[in-house]
């Protein structure tokens, strides 16, 4: 919808967070957003460190919530404590970088009050050059009066509707430690109780199993998820990707390839799957096939607004630098050089670029 930015006053925002033992990150998070928000709600689910002490430097609205193995229940409790027009939610290991903060200030001061939901990119990982490597989109700011609810005990999601606005300002995930197993424990306890898992539960339970390297159990649950034929298309594609990973870790090449190709049943080939196939054929010394798949990755349109996990490396520099390798191996040094320079437009300071450049110039007698 088109937004009339005339005569709009700044909206007010409540930040709502649930936390537990986040003393290493919560100060960093709150410092990054305190100028953006007008109220900070902290719901603590059982911290035994200095989390609450650090949070108290930013707000006096700190609440206790008895942990009941239900993330949605905790987040909904936090949302009920909010008092302002809009709610922003974050985790303690998230931050808003300066450029994104500036963009959000602009959104805040010009937002049409008819907007109910604002979605934002969520930067999950960066490469060694500081560029975003993986990203997903989340509903991040919502109108409080709509009373939107979180659903799901673990890997919860926010059920929203109404007028939506997608913006480019991002939240960045910067964890200092890995998952302690709490999510997996919740799923396993639910399974022991004989609970019936929804397709979404099966998918995210499988993700937890995979993350804990329990590959055979993960495969079982991904396959159960796909067999329901009720999954969201992006989760179906994600399951294919993760099944390929599982079988790769188990050195099962046949099934690794099977699930890469299965992803094409749900959508046109994505760049990351093309790069997977390019990698397989490159390491099988099948240059013609490798070049085909890497070239296809470079030719695919970059998706606009996407709610699936985006591997931005496969959409930018990676297939070009791999094509440089492929063409070099078959003696087509000019083509190799061209693709190395294309990769350089994305990662100019990468040491591989200059090494490739010097080698290829020598082979072309430049």
From TrEMBL:
This is Peptide S-glycosyltransferase, SunS family. The keyword Amino-acid biosynthesis does not apply. Gene3D superfamilies: Spore Coat Polysaccharide Biosynthesis Protein SpsA, Chain A, Tetratricopeptide repeat domain. The keyword Transferase applies. Keywords: Transferase. Residues 14-152 form the Glycosyltransferase 2-like domain. It comes from the Bacteria. InterPro entries: Glyco_trans_2-like, Nucleotide-diphossugar_trans, TPR-like_helical_dom_sf. SUPFAM superfamilies: Nucleotide-diphospho-sugar transferases (SSF53448), TPR-like (SSF48452). Pfam families: Glycos_transf_2 (PF00535). The lineage of its organism: Bacteria, Bacillati, Bacillota, Negativicutes, Selenomonadales. One of its GO terms (molecular function) is transferase activity.
């Amino acid at each position: 919808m088109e937004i009339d930015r005339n005569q709009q006053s700044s909206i007010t925002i409540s930040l709502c967070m649930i936390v537990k033992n986040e003393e290493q990150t919560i100060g960093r998070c709150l410092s990054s957003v305190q100028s953006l928000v007008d109220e900070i709600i902290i719901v603590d689910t059982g911290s035994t460190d200095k989390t609450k002490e650090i949070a108290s430097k930013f707000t006096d609205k700190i609440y206790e919530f008895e942990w009941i193995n239900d993330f949605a229940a905790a987040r909904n409790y936090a949302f009920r404590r909010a008092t302002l027009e809009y709610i922003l939610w974050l985790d303690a290991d998230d931050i808003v970088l300066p450029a994104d903060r500036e963009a959000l200030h602009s959104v805040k001061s010009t937002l049409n009050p008819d907007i109910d939901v604002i979605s934002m990119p969520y930067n999950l990982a960066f490469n060694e050059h500081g560029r975003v490597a993986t990203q997903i989109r989340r509903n991040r700011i919502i109108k409080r009066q709509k009373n939107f609810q979180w659903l799901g005990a673990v890997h919860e999601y926010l059920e929203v509707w109404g007028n939506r606005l997608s913006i480019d300002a991002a939240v960045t995930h910067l964890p200092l430690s890995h998952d302690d197993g709490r999510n997996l424990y919740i799923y396993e306890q639910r399974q022991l109780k004989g609970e019936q898992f929804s397709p979404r539960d099966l998918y995210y339970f499988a993700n937890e199993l995979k993350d804990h390297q329990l590959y055979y159990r993960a495969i079982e649950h991904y396959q159960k998820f796909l067999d329901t034929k009720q999954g969201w298309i992006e989760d179906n594609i994600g399951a294919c990707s993760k099944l390929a990973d599982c079988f790769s870790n188990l050195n099962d090449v046949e099934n690794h390839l099977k699930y890469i190709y299965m992803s094409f049943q749900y959508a046109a080939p994505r760049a990351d799957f093309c790069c997977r196939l390019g990698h397989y054929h490159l390491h099988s010394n099948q240059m013609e096939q490798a070049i085909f798949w890497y070239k296809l990755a470079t030719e695919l349109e970059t998706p606009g607004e996407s709610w699936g996990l985006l591997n931005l490396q496969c959409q930018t520099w990676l297939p070009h630098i791999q094509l440089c390798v492929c063409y070099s191996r078959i003696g087509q040094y000019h083509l190799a050089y061209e693709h190395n320079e294309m990769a350089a437009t994305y990662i100019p300071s990468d040491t591989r670029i200059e090494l490739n450049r010097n080698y290829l110039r020598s082979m072309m007698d430049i």
